[in-house]
């Protein structure tokens, strides 16, 4: 398959602009005004009294005029190549998470900046002098203890804490986004949002879910525009922080580690979803959506959070209407003769026939009794789960059936109870999660590989590209290759504009 893909590094464009040379730029010498601001900042810092590692150093230097030359020299020791701020913000010595500073010379984290603090000790023992407060993004020179406010540090603050505006996110899902790649420190081009996520141990099953959710525009935009600094849950804060890093147009390294977020997932789930062992992406998705919904302030009511407005639909089972966040559909049973599987004659079905299980006209036998499904309401984004794994008494069995689906224009009308009064029933695919393992039908957890296909650009034709991401490997993939994988999970987006028949682009409708 690798011969069929084009590497992202072939994207052409202008290189990342050179960093401003601080020492060569006379215009950036502190003016009387910046001196005054620095002094005022020092005074303010001194009064905040953040913790016991506190501010006595800053207070003691209050009013002194620091020689600007010293800070110039120290800023020159900053090593951006070792900075990413992806790891859990705890002191490398005390393991505390309170009042943590990052050393901008070596990238390590230390607590406090007062005379008895670990950052202070690091400055003296290791001769590293520039530290950033990981909460406030303010930069200090230690052991002197003064605040540095310099425009050349702004890119570091942006990597630590990226910010977005409605204008800056308006084109993320449009072809325009593909036309302006970003450049990392090594001048390697990347497309924000389509970057690798580290697989720390066995967390690829969570990486594909993270990527899928962060490409659903309403949820993505909600997270990118958020400013959680209060009593929100740590899980929500860290997921929003991860979203901002994945879509950051000014990364130093064109990859992100989900470590900080996954540590919190591990804590909240009491070890059920761990970095250390393979898990089920569909179970993880359900768990994460429910936690995000609750943490954003959602209730049992319709539309009470961006999770519900985006993903919640309604299905009728017998006489009860139940809300759903995703639809789980069965695959037809694989052939009884395992020979045909071993000879790579893989059964195929169309997505329409799989979805027909939801047709109100049909019944489905399950757990010994008949169930009837009728979709009453489809959400703006439909999550489909293809139930590929079934547990028998001894092992988990995998159904290798390939599902054939179009990338655009899937009509869900047939699976609705009352299609006439429903908004558009035409959906386009935006994310597709596939499973790969050794030959055979048993689910081999040791050799399992999870991959995600993500749409970029949108609109079909030349405007739309697809990327396949497997942890750190990001490759453009040809559209016709996408259906060949063992799909487990898909996210479909309702087409809001009227189907166009005039531009001739939209020929791939089902
Ligand atoms: Zn250091």
UniProtKB/TrEMBL annotation:
PROSITE patterns reported for this sequence: USP_3, ZF_UBP
CDD domains, alphabetized: Peptidase_C19M
PANTHER family: U4_U6.U5 TRI-SNRNP-ASSOCIATED PROTEIN 2, UBIQUITIN CARBOXYL-TERMINAL HYDROLASE
Residue span(s) of domain UBP-type: 70-167
Gene3D superfamilies the record matches: Cysteine proteinases, Zinc/RING finger domain, C3HC4 (zinc finger)
Region Disordered, annotated ranges: 1-68
InterPro entries given in the database record: Papain-like_cys_pep_sf (IPR038765), Peptidase_C19_UCH (IPR001394), Ub_carboxyl-term_hydrolase (IPR050185), USP (IPR028889), USP39 (IPR033809), Znf_RING/FYVE/PHD (IPR013083), Znf_UBP (IPR001607)
GO cellular component terms listed in the entry, alphabetical order: spliceosomal complex
Primary site of residence: nucleus
GO molecular function, one term: zinc ion binding
Any one Pfam family match given in the protein's UniProt record, by short name: zf-UBP
Protein name: Spindle pole body protein
Span of domain USP: 195-495
Superkingdom in the source lineage: Eukaryota
Alphabetical keyword list: Metal-binding, mRNA processing, mRNA splicing, Nucleus, Spliceosome, Zinc, Zinc-finger
UniProt xrefs under SMART domains: ZnF_UBP (SM00290)
